[in-house]
Design a protein that fits this description.
There is one protein chain. About 50% of the residues lie in helices and about 10% in strands. The chain has about 475 residues and is an alpha/beta fold. The strands form 2 sheets. Strands 3-2-1-4-5-6-7 form a 7-stranded mixed β-sheet, with helices on both faces. The N and C termini lie far apart (about 85 Å). The relative contact order is 0.09.
């Protein structure tokens, strides 16, 4: 045994390996563990130590007890495993070797309810168990991710210095890692991040499809996205989209060779479901999720395209209108995401600070953008829809979006996320809606009762509609 390690990392996939390299580069001694599967996964941790110079002093293991015993106490273990059964089995296996004071962090994309249940399970690891959302992909994990830990705040205090050291930093030097709150708040926050990410990706894809229908080349669209990236519209996703459109394979643009089917790993679906459970509209992330579902049904889409002539026509729109519509939709997406966080905080008594979450998302993560830099300050006082500084942008952007949607409809261009943003804004900014008729319908067939405008007491009424 060379020394006792500061950290133990379980799971040598892309993310686990990148985080291990990040820790080692920042002066932390690490032990690495990966399971042993005959003929499939053998000496994986040892291979990582050999491959990456940063890990030359790391200790590799495929025996769990020896791995745990290589760690200084209280032991600090970071699990980088697929959510679900793999995490559950590892926690069971670890229970034979760890002590109550040891700290285990689940850094995968576990469902926040699983995380909360594990914290309340009474298991040996439960007291100091932390759930931590991590964003930024492999590059972020290697060079500085955005991290969202939650659980026992005292346990976080033990690991805070190390985690904040390896996290991304904002332009002012603050760490993009902070204690989020109690329970599964960290994994919930990462889930909402991913839902917003779904909407942002679909929004850019809709801008791209619109521009392609306008007969712009991939190179021209890339240049346009680069131009947008030089403005307050800049974001990580926009910049990588511009880069993607430049890549060629031989004489072909690589983007034109990629099958138009998109996958999803569950967090987008979870976010959509939880929004419904909380009674909070997250219509943009839901529209983005359903767009992926529709995209995945490629065979049926081919069949139906032969029955219906809905092929896109060439739209005509001013590019400035498209940019302002894009900016408007991003504001609505961020409003919906942060409102989800606010509602969950009240429901679960987490005490989330929206501005602090915006700060964590300012660098190192998929949602980093100039808009997030603005929200770090603005969310300290108002929501996006209520902040005076956003009102003119919203009004101007809404008018531009209407023009984009009118053109999109007449040109057969699907714009589900743009449409969701427009409909949400309309519903939320009109004093009188349509729900009074719905309440009357519910009372008619189910005696569900309704409230009246002329009774401020909040009393409920029922009408015998058939005998009026």
């Amino acid at each position: 045994m060379k020394h006792k390690s500061d950290w133990g990392i379980i799971g040598m996939g892309v993310m686990g390996t990148s985080l291990a390299r990040n820790m080692a580069r920042n002066g932390l001694n690490v032990s690495l563990f990966n399971r042993h599967l005959e003929g499939l996964e053998e000496k994986v941790a040892a291979a990582k130590v050999t491959r990456y110079p940063e890990l030359a002093q790391a200790q590799p293991f495929d025996a769990l007890q020896a791995f745990v015993e290589s760690l200084a106490t209280p032991r600090k273990l970071l699990l980088m495993l697929p959510a679900g059964d793999a995490v559950a089995q590892m926690l069971t296996d670890l229970s034979d070797f760890i002590q109550e004071e040891d700290i285990i962090i689940d850094g995968g994309n576990s469902h926040f309810e699983d995380t909360q249940r594990r914290m309340n399970s009474g298991a040996v690891y439960a007291k100091n168990y932390l759930g931590m959302g991590i964003s930024g992909g492999a590059s972020g994990a290697l060079w500085g991710p955005s991290m969202m830990p939650s659980g026992n705040q005292q346990a976080y205090g033990v690991v805070a210095q190390d985690l904040e050291k390896i996290a991304a930093k904002t332009a002012s030097g603050t760490s993009c890692c902070t204690y989020i709150g109690a329970g599964g708040a960290g994994h919930f926050t990462k889930m909402v991040h991913n839902g917003m990410e779904y909407a942002e990706m679909q929004l850019i894809a809709e801008m791209y499809v619109f521009l392609r229908a306008s007969k712009l080349s991939n190179a021209a669209i890339s240049t346009l996205f680069d131009t947008w990236s030089q403005t307050a519209s800049n974001s990580y996703l926009l910049s990588i989209s511009a880069a993607i459109l430049k890549v060629k394979e031989g004489t072909h643009d690589l983007i034109d060779l990629i099958l138009d089917k998109a996958g999803n790993k569950g967090t987008g679906a979870w976010a959509t479901q939880i929004g419904a459970a909380l009674g909070v509209s997250n219509s943009m992330m839901a529209a983005a999720l359903y767009a992926r579902f529709n995209a995945a049904d490629k065979k049926l889409r081919i069949q139906l395209s032969q029955l219906f002539d809905t092929s896109p026509k060439t739209p005509e729109i001013e590019l400035d209108h498209l940019l302002h519509a894009y900016d408007f939709c991003r504001l609505i997406n961020h409003y919906q995401g942060f409102r989800m966080l606010e509602s969950a905080s009240a429901e679960y008594r987490w005490g989330l600070e929206l501005s602090a979450i915006a700060n964590v998302w300012r660098s190192g993560c998929i949602l980093k953008s100039e808009l997030m830099d603005r929200l770090f300050e603005k969310l300290k006082t108002h929501s996006i829809l209520e902040h005076p500084e956003f009102q003119s942008e919203l009004i101007h952007g809404f008018e531009a979006l209407k023009k984009v949607l009118r053109t999109g409809i007449s040109s057969n261009i699907p714009l589900p996320v743009c449409s969701a943003a427009q409909q949400f804004f309309l519903q939320m900014t009109q004093e009188k809606g349509s729900a009074h008729l719905i309440q009357a319908q519910r009372d008619y067939f189910g005696a569900h009762r309704y409230q009246r405008l002329d009774d401020e007491s909040g009393s409920f009424y029922h009408t015998d509609w058939e005998n009026q």
